[in-house]
Amino acid sequence: MAIFAAILTNQNKLQDSKKRKACLTQLGIMKQIAVIGAGTMGNGIAHVFAMKGYSVALTDVSEKALEKAIATIGKNLDRMIAKEKISEADKTDTLNRIKTFTKIAEGVEGVDLVVEAATENIDLKLRIFEEIDEHAPANAILASNTSSISITRIAAVTKRPDKVIGMHFMNPVPVMKLVEVIRGYSTTDEVTNLVMETSRNLGKIPVEANDYPGFVSNRILIPMINEAIYTLHEGVAGVEAIDTVMKLGMAHPMGPLQLADFIGLDVCLAICRVLYDGFGNPKYAPCPLLVNMVTAGKLGRKSGEGFYTYTPGSKEIKVSASFQ
Ligand SMILES: NC(=O)c1ccc[n+]([C@@H]2O[C@H](COP(=O)([O-])OP(=O)(O)OC[C@H]3O[C@@H](n4cnc5c(N)ncnc54)[C@H](O)[C@@H]3O)[C@@H](O)[C@H]2O)c1
Questions:
Q1: What residues make up the domain containing 69?
Q2: Active site annotation includes 168
Q3: Which end of the chain, N or C, is surrounded by fewer C-beta atoms within 10 Å?
């Protein structure tokens, strides 16, 4: 029995190493990447691919977003030069590898992998994927950086659901190590392995997850944030007290309320609703305080006020007057 198990283990190892070899061969061929959407995440994704030698076609409907993205990448590379992590020549080479486009049809021409990082809106993403599918080479892998939209749903509007996958980078992309790789219902092992290896090639650590609402990251993070808001709403403790408990007691680098402000309260609410609708379970119901704050336009750092208030150009934060 033990011998039989050992033979099986060896066979599995052999198959795994063959798979890995085939994957690495294909990885060597992956050279051209399209990034759709040049906002917060898109510019970071373009940055990390270009730094590792890939040619990047960065596409956005907005010329202004493209200009801002290139300026941001330049500034982030300058910071790396100041820390002596890269040279001036590395910066020039990285920027030279990024070309910008305003039309998806042009941006995805001849690419091996598309990473979509456009605005989190399901109708928009479905339209974008139809367009990418029409114009990208038939063998190209199509990835989405969505935080909460079903990969299977996105894949269903393409003619290649086996090649559609989630590649969920974290913000800020050049700094954060994790890539959550989400397999849609029809995503093949081959495509998953290739995307895992590509992520490793970027110096990231990929983790595989199946396609259920919130995947792993937001299924755990967003209910924690929602519970922190309920804790505040029910008067159990104040903003600073809640964040301090989680920072000092649980060794979280940032308290959940400050993190909610950082993510954007509108984004937290939208993901909460995806969990609530997706599982039909009342435990995911968004806290009424979160709903009220979003309705009032208090979206966190990006609007200048959430649980804390923010002054542009300053790192100082204060608990919002509403919670003092
Ligand atoms: N911001 C985060 O912390 C974070 C973290 C992980 C994942 N995400 C996901 O990444 C994606 C992008 O988020 P973001 O924060 O970078 O958003 P963002 O608003 O900063 O950028 C979105 C960009 O998409 C562009 N866009 C809109 N329609 C387009 C189209 N048809 N074609 C091309 N570009 C188009 C917009 O002009 C904008 O520049 C979303 O799916 C979001 O859920 C965000």
A1: 14-210
A2: yes
A3: N
